[in-house]
Write a structure and sequence with these properties.
The structure holds 2 protein chains of 2 kinds. Chain A is mainly beta. Helices cover 0% and strands 54% of the residues of chain A. In chain A, the strands form 3 sheets. In chain A, strands 2, 5, 6, 10, 11 and 12 form a 6-stranded mixed beta sheet that branches. Chain A has a 4-stranded antiparallel beta sheet with strand order 3-9-8-7, with no helix packed on it. Chain A has a two-stranded antiparallel sheet with strand order 1-4. Chain A is globular. The N and C termini of chain A lie far apart (41 Å). By secondary structure, chain B is mostly beta strands. Chain B contains no helices and 11 strands. Chain B has strands at residues 5-7, 10-13, 19-24, 31-37, 43-50, 53-57, 65-68, 75-79, 88-95, 104-105, 109-113. In chain B, strands 2, 4, 5, 6, 9, 10 and 11 form a 7-stranded mixed beta sheet that branches. A 4-stranded antiparallel beta sheet of chain B has the order 1-3-8-7, with no helix packed on it. Chain B starts with a strand and ends with a strand. The chains are: A mainly beta, B mainly beta. The A-B interface holds A 34, 36, 41-46, 49, 89, 91, 96-107 and B 4, 6, 31, 33, 35, 41-45, 48, 50, 55-56, 91, 93, 95, 97, 102-108.
């Protein structure tokens, strides 16, 4: 079945450092790809998405490009802030019948220190 | 901004007891989902629901689980006889696929079975 593998955490960075969280996927067909973020004490929020190959999703300074050739969707940010501290989940969508479900990676906890 | 709301935020129950987790999806959404996350593990799909019936369920969603949309606004997950291994964070989500929107998640209910 489809699966998502993302970089094990935790990741600890200093403010203004460059962030990369790796994500690769295995899928039949052409799923949409997502990054969700979970801030402490909150639910899952969509951070960005890409629906087809070579699309770049971006939001709040974060970017990820849908790379079909490497089956990857790595998350990057040029300069992280303390407020970016959260758990980041890579996910793909599977459509079966009328339903669309998400398959998640394990999550990567990011801590940004001032 | 519309949001998915879940109650309670934390539920402690004794093994063998029935629990009902409640969710109010976004009002014009048509597809509803439950996911769970056992501590330190992946977010896993449990079930999807559309047009008042289950459209897909995972292997986890056995006979002990059921879902219901009793009144057109609430969407509930019932676990009939809880086991220790049901302890997890349970997330409700909804989307309106006909409008090609992403899934919106609630803040989650932390279920602790003792």
């Amino acid at each position: 079945g489809n699966s998502v593998t993302q970089m094990e955490g935790p990741v600890t960075l200093s403010e203004e450092a460059f962030l990369t969280i790796n994500c690769t996927y295995t899928a039949t067909g052409y799923p949409s790809l997502f990054w969700y973020v979970q801030y402490p004490g909150e639910g899952l929020q969509l951070l960005l998405k890409a629906t087809k190959a070579d699309d770049k999703g971006s939001n709040k300074g974060f970017e990820a490009t849908y790379r079909k050739e490497t089956t990857s969707f790595h998350l990057e940010k040029g300069s992280v802030q303390v407020s970016d501290s959260a758990v980041y989940f890579c996910a793909l969508s599977e459509t079966q019948g009328g339903s669309e479900k998400l398959v998640f990676g394990k999550g990567t906890k990011l801590t940004v220190n001032p | 901004e519309p949001e998915v709301t879940q109650t309670p935020s934390h539920q402690v129950t004794q093994m063998g007891q029935e629990v009902i987790l409640r969710c109010v999806p976004i009002s014009n959404h048509l597809y509803f989902y439950w996911y769970r996350q056992i501590l330190g593990q992946k977010v896993e799909f449990l079930v999807s629901f559309y047009n008042n019936e289950i459209s897909e369920k995972s292997e986890i969603f056995d006979d002990q689980f059921s879902v219901e949309r009793p009144d057109g606004s609430n969407f509930t997950l019932k676990i009939r006889s809880t086991k220790l291994e049901d302890s997890a964070m349970y997330f409700c989500a909804s989307n309106h696929r006909d409008l090609n929107t992403e899934a919106f998640f609630g803040q989650g209910t932390r279920l602790t079975v003792v």
